[in-house]
Every structure is written in structure tokens, then in C-alpha cells.
Amino acid sequence: MRFVPSLVHGVADYVSGAAILAVPVIVQEPEPARHVMMIIGNLVLLNAVLTNYELGILPVILLRLHLRIEAVFSVLMIVLPFIVTLSLSMAVMTRVFGVMFLVLAASTVLSGNSLVGHDRAGPRTCRSRQE
């Protein structure tokens, strides 16, 4: 069931991307884990910036593709503690973000901007020339 508006999803994307960048620095995570988290945080923000939704800055990715990319991020975040050595707090945080991304990807409403031929202004219309 899809019930999260794309605007709310966009806010969550930017806030979570910023948090993924900030938290490893704040808790002083060791370098390999910090770098991995910074790469993921930047990719989350890039995905948000490039998506064709209300908060996309350079809208070139359809929302449907954005949600699929986010599902991949969620799986990566959930398995990351098994790949990279993380502190307990970081391991919990990555899993929480992973589950959050998965829930958002599954529950965001696909509005008209996720379809071909649509943009933020709505469906493109052809104007006939009246004489």
C-alpha cells in the first residue's frame, strides 16, 4: 500500500542523507567505516537531487527508478555491518536507515511525475492552433 507523498519522501531523503554523512563523524567511527558511510550518504543525496519529484534539483531520474535505487541502498545498509567493521551504534543506525529506506521505497505514492511524459508541472499538453 502506497501512502507516503513524494514530497515527504523527498524531505526524508535529504534529512537521511545528511544524517548518514554527519553521524559517523560525530561518533568518531574509524576511517574505513566512515568513508563507506560518507559514500553512501553522498549517493543518497545525489539520488535525491537527480530525481524528478518536488524536491529534485536536476530532475533526470524518474521516481520509479529512484525507488528502485533506494531499495538497493536499503539492502546495502542492512548488510553493511557484515561487510565493514562498525561500532554497535553505527551497526544499529545503518540497519535502521536500511529498513527506513525499504519502507519508504515500498510505500511512496507514484504520482504523475513518475510516468514518461510528465514533469513537475504535470502532464504535457498539446495546444492546437486556433484560427
Structure description:
- The chain is 62% helix and 3% strand.
- It has 131 residues and is mainly alpha-helical.
- A two-stranded antiparallel sheet has the order 1-2.
- It is globular.
Features:
globular; 3% strand; mainly alpha; disordered C terminus; 131 residues; 4 helices; 2 strands; single chain
Q: What's a concise summary of this model?
A:
This protein is 62% helix and 3% strand.
Total helical segments: 4
Instruction: Give the class from helix and strand content and strand pairing.
Output: mainly alpha
Shape descriptor: globular
User: Order of strands across the biggest sheet?
Assistant: 1-2
SSE run: HHHHEE
- Mean pLDDT value: 85
* Rg calculated over all Cα atoms: 17 Å
The percent range for strand residues is under 5%
- Which quaternary structure do these chains form? single chain
- Stretches where pLDDT falls below 50 for ≥5 residues? 113-131
C-alpha end-to-end distance: 48 Å
The total of beta strands comes to 2
Largest sheet: 2 strands, antiparallel
Q: How much helix is in the residues?
A: 55-70%
Topology:
Elements lengths: L5 H21 L4 H19 L13 H21 L4 H20 L10 E2 L2 E2 L8
Antiparallel strand pairs: 1-2
Helix pairs in contact: 1-2, 1-4, 2-3, 3-4
